[in-house]
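REQUEST
  id: r-88c1
  op: predict_structure
  target: VWFD domain-containing protein
  payload:
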Amino acid sequence: IVTMPYYRAGVKLEQNSVYIKLESSVGIVVLWNRDDAVMVEVEPEYASRTCGLCGDYNGISHNEFIHNGRIISPVEFGNMHKVHRPNDDCEDPYEEDEQLLEATPDSCKEFLNSNKWSSCTILINPEPYIKACAQDMCYCSNNTNNACICSTLSEFSRQCSHAGGQPPNWRTPGFCGNVFCPHNMIYKESSSPCLDTCTNQDTSSLCEDHKMDGCFCPLGTVFDDVSMRGCIDQTECQCKHDRIYNPGELYRQETKECTCVGGKWACKDIQGPATCAVEEGSHITTFDGKTYTFHGGCFYTLARVEQKDDVSPKFTILAQLMPCAHQQYDTCLKSVKILLNNDRNNVRLPLF
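RESPONSE
  id: r-88c1
  status: 200
  body:
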């Protein structure tokens, strides 16, 4: 048992509201709807190398059921691939009664051949699904119960979407419509499996995966993956930076000021304080980063700002540079004098 999303040893396992998806570095993708449908994708390097119920992947569909020069039935083909495990006692499926199938209602054929499926029937042959639908109806306890054919119709819709078609929204509350979606998401027959979220708002436009059925956010909204509030307008998205920020809130960091706007940080440069320094009594760095050496012997103005008006600040900072007592060729910083408020407040920092 693992917790998803799961990443380890070349295996990625993740889930959405409908499917569990396994993707492996060996070149396979497996999608399972947790119920009655599984889809396996393999890379072209496996062409003509596979076997099993999924066939030999040789690009030719009409020879799938030929074995030792003989045409076999789907049931025979399926039984050939039964895995014999020591403790299993499995019965082989039986051949369908064709006459019984022909006696079933034509609702399957009428449904899948209707114009609303035209985008699908030009890409996928509906006949196998019509036959499967008839089988569902035939062996249903009540052949007027439309729920018996939901799995087959759902699979045809899935394959249509996978092939690039656009299946109709054929489900209704009374017909195969018992699909639950969390939060305020809605069920769609075909949409991008890459969900746009507050932290990744362009995921669907960059997605290379096949479209599929599932639960999606309504048009014009994104999924809130920050506070998990369901589908919201992008403008309501929060941002994260050590903590969660609501839209319009900001934080400052060194020379930047960032505001949360629709789940994204809008940052601008702000001017921070400038620094001037005197080191070892003679090595000076200006506010603009210029460095030079000056050996003084008096009081010097380090920095001064003249008052523009009655309310503007004014200050003067003086530094006393003198030859060092023990090293006459070196300069020492003897004291610093700070004059504030028109020289009414004086602060002297004696260093010795």
